[in-house]
């Protein structure tokens, strides 16, 4: 049985991100991924990419925000 959780492919951003296929909950227009004392922000695109988990929506990196401190 296939995993029914919504997932997306991340494109761009830091090469060191540990995961490129991530859950999206709820599916929407933006993802905020915690990474190295900040957040990497990804926006939904109209594209899909074939992966071992099937065709998934592509989210593109668009900015990083730093946590204060």
Strands, count: 5
Number of discrete helical segments: 0
Structural class: mainly beta
What percentage of the residues does DSSP assign to strands (E)? Answer: over 45%
How far from one another are the termini? 45 Å
Rg on CA atoms, Å: 12 Å
Side by side, the strands of the main sheet go 2-1-5-4-3
Averaging pLDDT over every residue, what do you get?
91
Regions with little confidence, pLDDT below 50 for 5+ residues: none
Describe the structure.
With 69 residues, the chain is an all-beta fold. Helices cover 0% and strands 58% of the residues. The protein contains no helices and five strands. It has strands at 7-11, 21-23, 30-34, 38-51, 54-66. It has a five-stranded mixed β-sheet with strand order 2-1-5-4-3, with no helix packed on it. A hairpin with a 2-residue loop joins strand 4 (38-51) and strand 5. It is elongated, with a radius of gyration of 12 Å. The termini are far apart. The model has no long low-confidence stretch (mean pLDDT 91).
In short:
This protein is 0% helix and 58% strand. It is mainly β.
List the SSEs and their pairings.
Blueprint: E1 7-11, E2 21-23, E3 30-34, E4 38-51, E5 54-66
Parallel strand pairs: 1-5
Antiparallel strand pairs: 1-2, 3-4, 4-5
Summary tags:
69 residues; mainly beta; 5-stranded mixed sheet
């Amino acid at each position: 049985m296939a995993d029914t959780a919504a997932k997306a492919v991340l494109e761009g951003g830091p090469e060191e991100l540990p995961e490129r296929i991530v859950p999206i909950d709820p599916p929407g227009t933006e993802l905020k991924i915690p990474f190295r004392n900040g957040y990497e922000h990804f926006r939904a695109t109209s594209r899909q990419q074939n992966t071992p988990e099937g065709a998934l929506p592509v989210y593109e990196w668009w900015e990083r925000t730093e946590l204060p401190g």
